[in-house]
Design brief:
The chain is an alpha/beta fold and 265 residues long. It has one domain (2-260): Spore Coat Polysaccharide Biosynthesis Protein SpsA, Chain A (Alpha-Beta Complex), CATH 3.90.550. The protein is built from seven helices and 14 strands. It has helices at 20-23, 66-80, 98-106, 138-146, 186-198, 218-228, 250-253; strands at residues 2-11, 29-30, 33-40, 48-51, 54-57, 81-91, 94-96, 110-112, 118-120, 123-131, 174-185, 234-235, 240-242, 258-260. The strands form three sheets. Strands 1, 2, 3, 4, 5, 6, 10, 11 and 12 form a nine-stranded mixed sheet that branches. A three-stranded mixed sheet has the order 7-14-13. It has a two-stranded antiparallel sheet with strand order 8-9.
Length: 265
């Protein structure tokens, strides 16, 4: 196995290889952190392949299957790499402030709780509180209204799938970290891998506890799984922001690890 401090994991898809993946301002590695780009290919003749810094997984390449793609990539990455710290998951539509990124990568990934005690950071990003599953999935329904061609793409495996079932409400409010940049410790990654293996990576799995089909909603169900396993949410004020936020000054922009360029696309 290849020893690394961590992996910067860029989640993408086939259609963005010549655009977003080509344009993203990341090097192939940062010290002993390696950058890996991930796409899906449902018709791949093996479980995965890694060519330089591009990992192709045998899985659907769709928006609905993002959770499956993410956790499968975790599983295979741990087969290849001996990871000291964890995985920084990124979307492919970020502009990185490399100074802030490198500062985070070099940090100890610990949170001070008093003068003498520190706890490991297992799950950090920009938090969202007070949303219910149904409220937070309107974007999923709207995405497929705006991209009906995805429903017919054989790589997406969505023929006959009722997208609306993934927007079923649950009554309990769910805390989670959302957005295009999330850090997971080794502990968190392995909890997610075990959970998805237990449901055979089936995003159509019905969850009795929430009385819903939450596995098409990647950010929400990740929070749901990790918090259920006593993983603490950690909020960062200067994690990422949206490039179209007109209130940001140049000084403000430099405080964030990344700026998000395609929030609604």
């Amino acid at each position: 196995m290849i020893a690394v401090d961590g992996i910067i994991l860029v989640i993408s898809c086939q259609k963005h290889i010549p655009t977003r993946l080509k344009e993203i301002n990341l090097k192939k590695d940062y010290g002993n952190w390696k950058v890996i780009n991930v796409i899906g290919d449902l018709f791949l003749d093996c479980d995965y392949k890694l060519e330089e810094n591009l990992m192709t997984l045998k899985c659907e390449d769709s928006y609905l299957h993002l959770l499956k793609k993410l956790v499968l990539s975790f599983q295979y990455i741990y087969e290849i790499f001996d990871i000291k710290e964890g995985i920084l998951k990124c979307n492919d539509d970020l502009i990185f402030n490399e100074n802030s990124l490198e500062s985070f990568l070099k940090s100890q990934k610990k949170h001070k709780i008093n003068d003498r005690e520190y706890i490991d950071i297992d799950y950090i990003g920009r938090t969202n509180y007070g949303f219910e599953l149904g409220e937070s999935t309107e974007h999923l329904i709207n995405y497929y209204k705006n991209h009906p061609e995805d429903l017919d793409n054989p790589q997406h495996n969505l023929k006959g799938v009722d997208i609306t079932k993934f927007s079923k409400y649950v009554k309990k409010e769910q805390k989670y970290i959302y957005g295009p940049l999330i850090y997971f410790s080794n502990k968190s990654c392995k909890i997610l891998i075990n959970h998805m293996n237990n449901i055979n990576y089936d995003i159509h799995h019905y969850d009795k506890k929430s009385d819903s089909y939450p596995y098409g909603i990647d950010d929400v169900i990740i929070g749901y799984i990790l918090i259920s396993n006593n993983i603490e949410i950690m909020h960062s004020n200067y994690w990422y922001n949206d490039l179209d936020n007109l209130s940001l000054t140049e000084e403000d922009k430099n405080k964030y690890i990344a700026l998000h360029t395609n929030k609604y696309k």
